[in-house]
């Protein structure tokens, strides 16, 4: 069942040391600022929860995994401060995922755009269905995937980042994403995906939590500067979104 709430929904279910963290929004599981803020706080809370060993990040429904940031909020930005704040939403979530003491496993059932690709890249491990194509369309509206680029580059490499961001009109299929390192495994159905995720997360949850935490530190080595880096990147996007090019592009999309 998918949510009809304007600000989206966020639910956590903890069972057998696995915290299933599910977000949803009626607009293809996109993120208004208020939902990003809730997600960040929940990840930070779960990071300190001793009853949790593993976090499973998932979204509602059987279609899109995440359509990125809220388009309705994007078109309403009128000044630099609001622009930077809007793009800081994903920056804060990615940094919360990076700093989280628990491993985060991503379950990607469908298409993912923009900030959603950043979320998947910030997971420590992700599995998907063959419907989970990805796209970074930001350049087509005059901005760029600046905030999520560090997470994407870290996971897929600079060549894949260039291929994704410059071909802003192109979907890359799930098998391409797997070859580049975004997904560990790709399945033909949601049923098969969920079966494997259940086995995998249960295995992880049975391991020494201290060992898992130490492995996480290794995965995220040399990213301590990301708080400042992503903040600077949000400012770049916030400035570009006010440009005449972007305002014209957004007006076309709005129509």
Write the layout of secondary structure elements.
Blueprint: E1 9-15, E2 18-24, H1 33-47, E3 54-59, H2 71-74, H3 80-99, E4 103-108, E5 112-113, H4 115-121, E6 125-129, E7 134-135, H5 149-156, H6 158-166, H7 174-180, E8 185-187, H8 190-206, H9 209-219, H10 226-240, H11 244-254
Parallel strand pairs: 2-3, 3-4, 4-6, 5-7, 6-8
Antiparallel strand pairs: 1-2
Helix pairs in contact: 1-3, 3-10, 4-5, 5-6
How would you characterize this protein structure?
With 255 residues, the chain is of the alpha/beta class. The protein has eleven helices and eight strands. It has helices spanning 33-47, 71-74, 80-99, 115-121, 149-156, 158-166, 174-180, 190-206, 209-219, 226-240, 244-254; strands spanning 9-15, 18-24, 54-59, 103-108, 112-113, 125-129, 134-135, 185-187. β2 (18-24), α1 (33-47) and β3 (54-59) form a beta-alpha-beta unit. The longest helix has 20 residues, at 80-99.
């Amino acid at each position: 069942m998918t949510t009809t709430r304007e600000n989206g929904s966020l639910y956590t279910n903890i069972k057998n040391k696995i915290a299933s963290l599910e977000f949803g929004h009626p607009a293809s599981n996109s993120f208004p600022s208020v939902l990003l803020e809730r997600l960040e706080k929940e990840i930070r809370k779960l990071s300190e929860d001793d009853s949790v060993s593993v976090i499973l990040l998932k979204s509602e429904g059987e279609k899109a995994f995440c359509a990125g940031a809220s388009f309705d909020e994007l078109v309403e930005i009128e000044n630099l401060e609001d622009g930077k704040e809007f793009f800081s939403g994903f920056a804060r979530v990615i940094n919360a995922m990076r700093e989280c003491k628990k491993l985060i496993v991503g379950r990607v059932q469908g298409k993912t755009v923009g900030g959603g690709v950043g979320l998947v890249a910030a997971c420590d491990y992700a599995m998907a269905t063959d419907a989970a194509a990805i796209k970074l369309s930001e350049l087509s509206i005059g901005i760029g995937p600046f905030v999520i680029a560090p997470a994407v580059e870290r996971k897929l490499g600079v060549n894949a980042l260039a291929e994704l961001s410059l071909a802003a009109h192109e979907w890359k299929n799930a098998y391409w994403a797997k070859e580049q390192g975004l997904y560990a495994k790709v399945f033909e159905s949601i049923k098969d995906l969920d079966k494997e995720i259940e086995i995998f997360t249960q295995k992880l949850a049975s391991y020494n939590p201290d060992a898992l935490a130490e492995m996480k530190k290794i995965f995220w080595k040399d990213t301590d500067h990301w708080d400042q880096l992503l903040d600077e990147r949000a400012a770049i996007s916030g400035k570009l979104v006010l440009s005449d090019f972007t305002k014209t592009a957004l007006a076309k999309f709005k129509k």
